[in-house]
Amino acid sequence: MSSPFPLLRLPRLVMFEVFKSLSIGEKIQLSLCSKKTLAQFNNARLYSQKVHVHLDMTIERIQVYPEDFKDWFQIGIHIDRKIDNPTIQLFGRRIVPMYKTIKTYWKNLGEGFLCVTRHLLKMFHCEISTGKECWRNDFFQPVISELFEQQVKFKTLTIRLYGSTDENLFWNQISNKFGLVKDLSISSVANLGFSPVFISWPQAITIMNSDWFTLETLWTCPCSFINLENSTLKHMDLNEILRKWMSGGFPNLDLLKIHTLRFRDYREDILGMDWMELSVMVIQTDDGLKKATFKTDHQSIEMSVSPFE
Known about the structure:
This protein is an alpha/beta fold. The protein has a domain at 1-127. It contains nine helices and 15 strands. It has helices at 12-21, 24-31, 35-43, 109-123, 140-149, 165-174, 215-219, 235-246, 275-278, and strands at residues 50-56, 61-66, 73-79, 88-90, 93-98, 101-106, 125-130, 154-161, 181-188, 204-207, 225-228, 255-259, 282-284, 290-297, 300-307.
């Protein structure tokens, strides 16, 4: 019988090279062996890979995969009902190892998602994302709030607003943290009952049912990508948007999409042109440094910005 390999006794840089050679699942499972192995992964974090961590609260699991999607591992988050299975312990909780998966059991799901996510943050350079339906879960708000308090960065974050008092409080609590978000998607019911105020902004934003997202709110938006679905903006608002952009406004803008733009007549004037002419036009900023091209459809417009050459 071969003797155990003394991994933790290897020279520091050699041990880190061994860590780098492991698959994501091997790294995670090795980190669960003891607090000492987790500490070594934490020490090696500067050498560790960048991974996406997807919090799928609807089907109660966390998926971990690299940027090239060639590897993956998932961690199930379940309520502990003391099922009689062979287990190991993590943070005093039961774990069931499986192929490409481990199942973990917790007193409540919010505790499980937070604890496992913190564990992964100690091991990898993580970009966090959430599922589209996660907002339906009672523990979504406290989990997201806690991660924001820890300055965790999100690749994608989806928020659904129904207009309740709790949602209003939640929004006010996190709206100063959106600078940590790369891509924010917001969906809401019509007649929300309150107007969400942005204290900070993500890099990209998509808003479904954007009747509350007014022209005044758009003036303050520094995002590079703006997508407004079911907008109540009118053709006269588009005139103002284009003129502001031409005079130096929206300096970060790469792409603007507005759907269901309100028209009374498709011959209404847009910068001296009618709607159909705009789709074949190129306009420039007043300083001549940028240009914009357009795609138009029935009540929809896409404006793409690029350097003028």
